[in-house]
């Protein structure tokens, strides 16, 4: 049933998904819309979603893809028809987080592509190459975005070292069972 | 030392609670309904918001008047700003009262397919709104392709844009939030939703805070919150654009007042683009190649008579072609290649389905005033015709076929430099008169001495080149 898994997802993961949407878009309202859009997209397709964890992963991935697609489309649209391009996302009246502290303000003011690159790299743990692949950018461009993002966001987050953190290392734990 | 990734995770964790609270304002049932609608759309093989929206559950937002109509004195049309509508809510005014069926602040967002009666200009949901002396001024206008600002009567989709200008204010007091969304309706059904914007006023003590902004009106069929792919063609016709504005207090659960500003009904013309193409003599359909029959046709035409042009790829000498030769360009290569539009040029033209660039014209035309080494490119779909050539300008004015100028160079790196002034031949000749010029490509053809190809009229390749008036000082 749609409603069962959906309701469970909403009750258990709404906060995490919402927070991801907020960090990705820099806006509570845009993040909220992104969550809802992704949920609808995931569930419309009648995927086999056995549990909430799987659904959350699907929704989170879809959010990322939707947002990157949107950035790409809007970039093209702005370039080709600036008069008809959509307005930049601006924090709405209820966007308390975006203006609550320096971190929120810095996040909201990051250029969208820079923010997306930062989130994919440091929150999703993708490698630079994977970020480049997801965003259809060169690795050099991603590195530049990451550098800009660290420089702009780092001080607000209390990070003084703007150098690249160590690459995330995936550790595969194999459970050994004695027979 | 705090790591950047850890700090970002902390930031996200800190946002979880407020975001959960925010998301929980939207009932899961609403999302479930959207999912079901989406599934129905998929099952029906439909996409896009309009058609499916019409088939979807109709949500009736009753903004109809449930009390006395708004006093005439509280709504006025300032004569000093034609087309503007002004609302001043004053204490003691009689107002139309009702519950808000639309809440722009939270989950009750407007969606395509909703049937809405927005016949009431002002609906006051809380009488205390009158005490704050809310003011709203809004003015719709059409910005034409030429950049003129006119009152909304017609809109050529693809060229003109509808823009709302608005300002609002209130007397001093607790901070009031304002939310704005432009809509387009077709007989009471929402068929376009623009970008919702919001802001909070901060009235100074004893003063009146006034906020001003602009927002673009959506086109019919623009139903998503941000995707170009949601823009679907909608038939020509008269649509009603409205700007819905709500004012609310953060501490209250429902809006104070809803304003609906109508623009009066705009005739949206979606075939303007086709007419535009037709006026310029080519078809809007993209093409991926040159139809050989077109070349044969062009060979048969005498519209642009060519002189005795030596054949072969080695043609370089164009001197003397001024004498009604009309010869133009020698093409060394001709190919369609993927093309990225120049990032700083707004001249690109969308196709009627908004799917992408269909063509481009007069790139850099303005640089032809005084003829200062212009260059230009041509687009067809997402490809462009690039060619290396040397060439000349051919007049299409009264003295058709006369060569009035030859280039100082050639297409080099997709660029062509014309002579500083139209000249007849490379070395001498009378300057050409001001007028409109065309570029003609001559393809060297060993079998036929020269194959001429008017690239301005090649089977829908959309290679119109309006060079504009070349000013000859």
Description of the molecule:
The complex is a heterodimer of chains A (179) and B (473). Chain A has eight helices and no strands. Chain A has 179 residues and is mainly α. Mean pLDDT of chain A is 73; it is low at 76-91 and 166-179. Chain B contains six helices and 25 strands. The termini of chain B are far apart. Chain B is α+β, with helices and mostly antiparallel strands and 473 residues long.
Keyphrases for this structure?
heterodimer, A: 179 residues, mainly alpha, 68% helix, globular, B: 473 residues, alpha+beta, eight-stranded mixed beta sheet, six-stranded antiparallel beta sheet, 6 helices, 29% strand, disordered C terminus
Describe the secondary structure blueprint for this structure.
The complex is a heterodimer of chains A (179) and B (473).
Chain A: H1 2-25, H2 28-44, H3 52-80, H4 96-100, H5 102-109, H6 112-123, H7 128-135, H8 139-157
Chain B: H1 4-23, H2 28-44, H3 49-55, E1 60-62, E2 75-76, E3 85-88, E4 115-117, E5 122-124, H4 128-131, E6 135-143, E7 149-150, E8 154-156, E9 161-171, E10 176-186, E11 189-193, E12 197-200, E13 208-216, E14 237-249, E15 257-262, E16 266-269, H5 272-279, H6 292-300, E17 329-338, E18 348-350, E19 357-360, E20 383-390, E21 393-395, E22 403-405, E23 437-439, E24 441-445, E25 449-453
Parallel strand pairs in B: 1-4, 8-16, 17-24
Antiparallel strand pairs in B: 2-3, 3-6, 5-15, 6-7, 6-9, 9-13, 10-11, 10-12, 10-14, 14-15, 14-16, 17-20, 18-19, 21-22, 21-23, 24-25
Give me the Rg of chain A, rounded: 18 Å
Helix content of chain B: 10-25%
Shape of chain B: globular
Strand fraction of chain A equals: under 5%
User: Largest protein interface?
Assistant: A-B, 67 and 61 residues
Distance between the termini of chain B: 69 Å
Helical stretch tally of chain A: 8
* Coarse shape of chain A: globular
Mean pLDDT of chain B: 53
Seen as an oligomer or otherwise, the chain set is heterodimer
Helix content of chain A: 55-70%
- Biggest β-sheet description of chain B: 8 strands, mixed
Number of helices of chain B: 6
Detail the poorly predicted runs of chain B.
44-80, 203-207, 225-233, 271-473
The number of E-state strands of chain A comes to: 0
Strand content of chain B: 25-35%
Mean pLDDT of chain A: 73
Q: What is the count of β-strands of chain B? A: 25
């Amino acid at each position: 049933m749609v409603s069962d898994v959906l309701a469970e997802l909403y009750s258990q993961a709404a906060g995490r998904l919402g927070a991801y949407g907020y960090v990705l878009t820099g806006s509570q309202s845009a993040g909220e819309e992104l969550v809802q859009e992704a949920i609808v997209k995931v569930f419309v397709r009648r995927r086999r979603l056995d549990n909430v964890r799987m659904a959350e992963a699907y929704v989170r991935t879809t959010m990322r893809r939707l947002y990157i697609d949107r950035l790409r489309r809007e970039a093209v649209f702005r370039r080709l028809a600036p008069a008809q391009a959509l307005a930049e996302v601006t924090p709405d009246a209820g966007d308390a987080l975006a203006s609550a502290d320096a971190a929120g303000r810095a996040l909201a003011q990051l250029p969208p592509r820079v923010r997306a690159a930062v989130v994919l790299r440091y929150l999703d743990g993708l490698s630079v190459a994977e970020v480049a692949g997801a965003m259809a950018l060169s690795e050099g461009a991603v590195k530049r975005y990451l550098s800009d993002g660290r420089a702009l966001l780092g001080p607000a987050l209390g990070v003084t070292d703007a150098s690249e953190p160590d690459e995330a290392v995936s550790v595969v734990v194999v459970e050994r069972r004695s027979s | 030392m705090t790591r950047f990734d850890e700090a970002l995770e902390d930031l996200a964790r800190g946002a979880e609670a407020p975001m959960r609270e925010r998301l929980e304002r939207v009932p899961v049932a609403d999302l479930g309904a959207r999912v079901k609608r989406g599934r129905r759309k998929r099952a029906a093989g439909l996409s896009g918001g309009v058609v499916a929206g019409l088939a979807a559950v109709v949500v009736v937002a009753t903004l109809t008047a449930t009390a006395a109509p708004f006093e005439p004195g509280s709504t006025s049309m300032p004569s000093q700003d034609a087309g503007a509508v002004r609302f001043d809510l004053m204490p003691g005014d009689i107002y139309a009262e009702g519950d808000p069926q639309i809440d722009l602040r939270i989950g009750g967002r407007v969606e395509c397919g909703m049937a809405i009666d927005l016949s009431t200009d002002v609906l006051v949901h809380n009488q205390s709104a009158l005490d704050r002396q809310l003011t709203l001024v809004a003015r719709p206008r059409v910005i034409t392709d030429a950049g003129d600002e006119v009152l909304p009567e017609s809109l050529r989709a693809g060229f003109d844009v509808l823009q709302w200008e608005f300002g609002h204010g209130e007397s001093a007091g607790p901070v009031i939030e304002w939310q704005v969304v432009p809509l387009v309706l077709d007989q009471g059904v929402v068929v376009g939703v623009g970008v919702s914007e919001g802001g909070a006023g901060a009235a100074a003590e004893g003063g009146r805070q006034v906020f001003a902004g602009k927002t673009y009106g959506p086109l019919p069929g623009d139903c998503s919150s941000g995707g170009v792919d949601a823009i679907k063609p909608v038939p020509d016709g008269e649509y009603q654009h409205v700007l819905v504005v709500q004012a609310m207090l953060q501490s209250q659960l429902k809006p104070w007042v809803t304003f609906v500003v109508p623009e009066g009904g705009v005739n949206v013309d979606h075939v303007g683009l086709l007419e535009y193409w037709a006026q310029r003599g080519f078809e809007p359909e993209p093409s991926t190649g040159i139809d050989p029959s077109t070349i044969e046709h062009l060979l048969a035409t005498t519209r642009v008579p060519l002189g005795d042009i030596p054949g072969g790829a080695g043609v370089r000498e164009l001197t003397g072609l001024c004498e009604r030769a009309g010869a133009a360009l020698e093409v060394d290569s001709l190919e369609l290649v993927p093309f990225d539009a120049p990032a700083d040029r707004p001249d690109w033209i969308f196709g009627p389905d908004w799917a992408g660039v269909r063509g481009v014209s007069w790139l850099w035309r303005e640089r032809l005033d005084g003829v200062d080494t212009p260059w230009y490119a041509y687009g067809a779909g997402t490809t462009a015709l690039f060619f290396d050539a040397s060439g000349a300008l051919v007049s299409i004015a009264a003295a058709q076929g006369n060569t009035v100028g030859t280039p100082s160079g050639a297409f080099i790196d997709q660029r062509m430099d014309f002579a500083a002034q139209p000249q007849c031949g490379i070395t001498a000749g009378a300057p050409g008169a001001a007028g409109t010029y065309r570029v003609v490509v001559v393809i060297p053809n060993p079998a036929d001495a020269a194959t001429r190809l008017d690239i301005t009229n090649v089977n829908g390749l959309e290679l119109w080149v309006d060079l504009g008036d070349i000013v000859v000082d």
